[in-house]
Task: inverse folding
């Protein structure tokens, strides 16, 4: 059974820590910033890839710390993503997060994750998050590509029109609901 509960997090409202500055650190930082360029993200690692340094230069919310992980870096953090090449370090970060009730993702160990990152389809304001329950991230990526291909660019116009109608509709909640369901019947 897939018991993952999907939520859309306002990541700009949180303090995020990424531990590890290799390919995985870069992938996860890119995922965060492509959704929320202004997100506050601290990344700590003794070796930090040049692409990460370049990303940090373009994103004032990103702070880089060239150091080995220490528990003190968890202070004030809400969300942690760890992807070092040292399993013992990953395990330690996870344990430290659990003690502090901080949500943690250990990129290469699904069993240690409180949450997974998803493949993300974006068309204007529409965002579709895809997960395979950890079974095949590559399938998630491919399915994202399929959805990106089939969703029309005109979708944003549809959303804008529906917002305008939604804001204009008078009446109580039930009446608005019925009217919006009626108008959007064609989408079924
Ligand atoms: C559980 C999860 C935890 C998490 O990372 O959050 C996880 C775990 C692991 N990934 C691994 C490998 C790869 N991951 C990708 C890609 C992505 N991985 C992502 C998410 C997730 N990956 C979470 C589950 C998501 C779900 O529920 O479906 C995506 C969707 C989002 C993102 O990372 O931002 C992003 C696609 C973004 C996009 O393009 O849309 C590719 C392909 C590629 O990069 O092209 C490969 C190589 C091919 C392969 O192995 O499949 C390994 C083996 C590591 C090893 O062998 O050492 C593990 C560990 C394990 O499974 O044990
Ligand atoms: N979930 C995923 O999407 C994937 C996970 N992986 C796994 O993730 C791990 C990391 O992979 P890469 O990023 O490619 O490795 P990498 O070798 O490119 O980078 C490792 C990073 O960990 C940092 N690091 C090492 N010790 C540290 C410490 N004590 N504190 C803080 N940072 C520390 C290094 O400085 C470096 O920045 C590997 O074990 C790999 O098997 C690999 C591919 C995909």
Result:
């Amino acid at each position: 059974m897939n018991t993952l509960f999907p939520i859309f997090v306002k990541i700009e409202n949180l303090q995020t820590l990424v531990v590890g500055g290799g390919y995985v650190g870069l992938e996860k930082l890119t995922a965060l910033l492509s959704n929320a360029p202004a997100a506050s993200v601290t990344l700590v690692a003794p070796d930090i890839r040049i692409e990460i340094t370049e990303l940090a230069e373009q994103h004032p919310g990103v702070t880089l710390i060239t150091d080995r992980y220490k528990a003190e870096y968890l202070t004030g953090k809400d969300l942690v993503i760890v992807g070092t090449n040292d399993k013992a370090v990953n395990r330690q970060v996870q344990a430290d997060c659990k003690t502090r009730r901080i949500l943690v993702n250990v990129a290469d160990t699904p069993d240690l994750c409180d949450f997974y990152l998803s493949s993300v389809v974006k068309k204007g304001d529409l965002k579709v998050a895809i997960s395979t329950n950890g079974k095949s991230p590559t399938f998630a990526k491919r399915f994202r590509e399929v959805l990106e291909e089939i969703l029309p660019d005109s979708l944003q116009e549809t959303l804008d029109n529906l917002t305008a109608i939604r804001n204009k509709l008078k009446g109580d909640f039930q009446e608005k609901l019925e009217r919006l369901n009626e108008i959007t019947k064609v989408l079924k």
Notes: The mean pLDDT is 95.
